[in-house]
């Protein structure tokens, strides 16, 4: 599939289309200007409008992310440019927050293609690949697996086959930013707004520079002591691609917790979901039940036991994350009722004092 280039100027170069224009009508009537968030830094946003790239403050209560479409109040002598509203997100890459908060963290908004960078310079972590694929599928974007650093791989063909087995139904391309291998093929798969996801040291920034045709992003190697990647991308940034569309590079993900990703997990393990439909019992746990089609597939060599183990692990994690969210929502609801009751008691006291 070849990309449909955005025109090379103005908002259209960043993905603006007729449906967004229609959704913005009310904001335009209020004198606001459409823009896209290209970077968020310390409470302020760099945005692009049809004719400018201002830095804007953010209205209280908004939580913009790179890739968001927004309504901008232009600056004047009394106030700086300010984001006052966000348009509804078509898609969003969301992971579980790193702290105790059960809310999800949005990594990128309005993404069409999620390119997952996986290095071939070391052993392949198929479990991490499956986790990133679940994140991508859940977002609503189309995932593509970019196998990077093929020039440093011991056996790139075998590793590519292993990665493809962990990503059924997903285009998997072997690439090298050094030799140029696979870059043309990959470029044809990256359409619309593209986000690059992967761990530190996966070669994301080198791959991004190769796709951009210029060294616009800092790159770095891995630490000699432990082989872990250095963080060269420190914030998410949106950059137009020369062939059309835009690219969002993200900092390396050390941890990728899933957040409300049941549909994404089903996509990643579609073969297990399909087999489960043939199990004798509807609530089959795929362990030792008679007539379990999943275990029969494992016994026949048609399904790797590792795939079932990974599937179960991600389901458990997603269920635990959902329970945290439910607990937070219950706590928030209790807090609201306590506030209402306190207000009622105060009103009753004032009423009694007035008698």
From TrEMBL:
Its main location: cytoplasm. Its EC number is 3.6.1.-. Residues 109-254 form the EngC GTPase domain. It holds the Pfam family RsgA_GTPase. Keywords: Cytoplasm, GTP-binding, Hydrolase, Metal-binding, Nucleotide-binding, Ribosome biogenesis, RNA-binding, rRNA-binding, Zinc. One of several proteins that assist in the late maturation steps of the functional core of the 30S ribosomal subunit. Helps release RbfA from mature subunits. May play a role in the assembly of ribosomal proteins into the subunit. Circularly permuted GTPase that catalyzes slow GTP hydrolysis, GTPase activity is stimulated by the 30S ribosomal subunit. NCBIfam families: ribosome small subunit-dependent GTPase A. GO terms for cellular component: cytoplasm. Binds 1 zinc ion per subunit. One of its GO terms (biological process) is ribosomal small subunit biogenesis. It comes from the Bacteria. Its cofactor is Zn(2+). It is an enzyme of class 3 (hydrolase). The keyword Transcription regulation does not apply. Residues 101-256 form the CP-type G domain. GO terms for molecular function: GTP binding; GTPase activity; metal ion binding; rRNA binding. The keyword Zinc applies. Belongs to the TRAFAC class YlqF/YawG GTPase family. RsgA subfamily. This is Small ribosomal subunit biogenesis GTPase RsgA. The lineage of its organism: Bacteria, Bacillati, Actinomycetota, Actinomycetes, Kitasatosporales. Gene3D superfamilies: P-loop containing nucleotide triphosphate hydrolases, Probable gtpase engc, domain 3. GTP binds at residues 198-206.
């Amino acid at each position: 599939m070849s990309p449909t280039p955005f025109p090379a100027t103005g908002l259209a170069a960043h993905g603006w289309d007729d449906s967004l224009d229609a959704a913005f009508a009310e904001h335009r009537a209020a004198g606001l200007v459409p823009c896209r968030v290209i970077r968020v830094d310390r409470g302020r946003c760099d945005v692009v409008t049809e004719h400018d790239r201002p830095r804007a403050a953010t209205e209280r209560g908004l939580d913009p992310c790179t890739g968001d479409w927004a309504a901008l109040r232009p600056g004047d002598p009394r106030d700086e440019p300010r984001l006052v509203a966000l348009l509804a997100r078509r898609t969003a890459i969301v992971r579980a927050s790193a702290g105790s908060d059960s809310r999800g963290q949005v990594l990128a908004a309005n993404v069409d293609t999620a390119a997952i960078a996986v290095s071939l310079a070391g052993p392949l972590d198929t479990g991490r690949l499956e986790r990133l694929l679940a994140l991508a599928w859940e977002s609503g974007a189309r995932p593509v697996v970019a196998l990077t650093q093929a020039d440093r791989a011991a056996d790139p063909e075998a590793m590519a086959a292993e990665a493809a087995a962990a990503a059924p139904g997903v285009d998997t391309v072997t690439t090298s930013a050094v030799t140029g291998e696979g870059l043309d093929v990959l470029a044809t798969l990256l359409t619309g707004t593209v986000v690059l996801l992967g761990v530190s040291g996966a070669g994301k920034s080198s791959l991004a520079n190769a796709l951009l045709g210029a060294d616009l992003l800092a790159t770095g190697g891995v630490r000699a002591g432990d082989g872990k990647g250095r963080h060269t991308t420190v914030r998410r940034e949106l950059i137009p691609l020369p062939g059309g569309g835009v690219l969002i590079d993200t900092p390396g993900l050390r941890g990728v917790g899933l957040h409300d990703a049941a549909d994404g997990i089903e996509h990643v393990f579609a073969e297990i979901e399909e087999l489960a439909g043939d199990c004798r019992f509807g609530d089959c746990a795929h362990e030792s039940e008679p007539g379990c089609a999943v275990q029969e597939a494992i016994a026949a060599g048609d399904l790797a036991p590792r795939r079932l183990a990974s599937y179960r692990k991600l389901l458990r994690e997603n269920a635990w994350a959902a329970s945290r969210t439910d607990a937070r929502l219950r706590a928030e609801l209790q807090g609201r009722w306590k506030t209402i009751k306190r207000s009622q008691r105060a009103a009753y006291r004032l009423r009694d004092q007035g008698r």
